[in-house]
Amino acid sequence: MAIEFKHVSYVYAPNTPLAVKSLDDVSFKLEEGHFIALIGHTGSGKSTLMQHFDALLKPTQGEITIGDLKITPETTNKGLKPLRHKVSLVFQFPESQLFEETVIKDIAFGPQNFGLSPQEAEQKAYKWLEKVGLPKEVAKQSPFDLSGGQMRRVAIAGVMACEPDVLCLDEPAAGLDPSGQKQMLQLFTDYQKQGHTVILITHNMDDVAQYADDVLVMEKGKLIKHETPRLLFKDRRWLRQHHLDEPTTGLFAQRLSGNGFQFDRVPLTLNELVMQIKANLEDHQ
Q: Could you tell me which residues come within 8 angstroms of residue 284 by beta carbon, excluding any fewer than 6 positions away?
């Protein structure tokens, strides 16, 4: 399901002294089935942009096309349920989305709300409970008796149990330990490889380099770049100008370049870095 924004702007508290333009004339097109990273500094408009994908927020100006549905400033909430079945959002603090009395009921709520029988929804819930790495034993517990990291996994499972075409994630792995973060990113990548679109807000450039097909860079409400990770991280001067970090692999390659190593392209993953180091060493034998 392709996504296109055409000249989208969004103003909080319009026509009041507190009005703030959070999105400013944003246009882009995302292809179906891609893993998209959405980056930028705090206050750049990332979360506001994310909430337009499922029409939680509607544009003050412009037009959004998601699949065969168009969203404009005149769009009402009536008829948006099919969109929210196809596009789901995990908020920055997903544990705040929990509300049911047991873990399994919380995960099953979305699938049941979108038409599955209670039995089918529960089966789906157990499937995703396992996929997010939680033991079956927690299913009948209250989600509020779990640790913060476990609560986050429950909330992610509840969204993914709806199996949306487009999965939007606002820093979902924040607060998890490194192993948990890696496990969640692999889960999202596997989901994308099954034909779904994944859109991830992150500050971690290593994740952008390793997982993303496309990158949207926001700054002060504007989209300042839409590029592949390789081309984005190739322009080190531009990154410095906009105070954006480089992935660890790129920084390491840059240090090696000062010691006689040559890299034909920016290594985005550890495997690429190792392969290029190996090629350099073989050339010097």
A: none
* Digit-coded pLDDT (tens) for 163-186: 999 999 998 877 788 888 899 999
Fold that domain 3-246 belongs to in CATH: Rossmann fold (3.40.50)
Instruction: Please report, to the nearest 10 degrees, the dihedral formed by the alpha carbons of residues 197, 201, 207, 211 taken in order.
Output: 10
* Dihedral angle, C-alpha 157, 158, 159, 165, nearest 10 °: 80
Pairing of strands 35-39, 197-201: parallel
d(CA 24, CA 85): 28
The pTM of the full predicted model, rounded to 2 decimals, is: 0.91
Of all helices (H) and strands (E), which one includes residue 94? Answer: none
Domain boundaries, the chain: 3-246, 247-285
Q: What is the per-residue pLDDT across 78-137, written as a single tens digit (0 to 9) for each?
A: 878 889 889 999 887 767 788 899 999 999 999 998 889 999 999 999 999 999 999 999
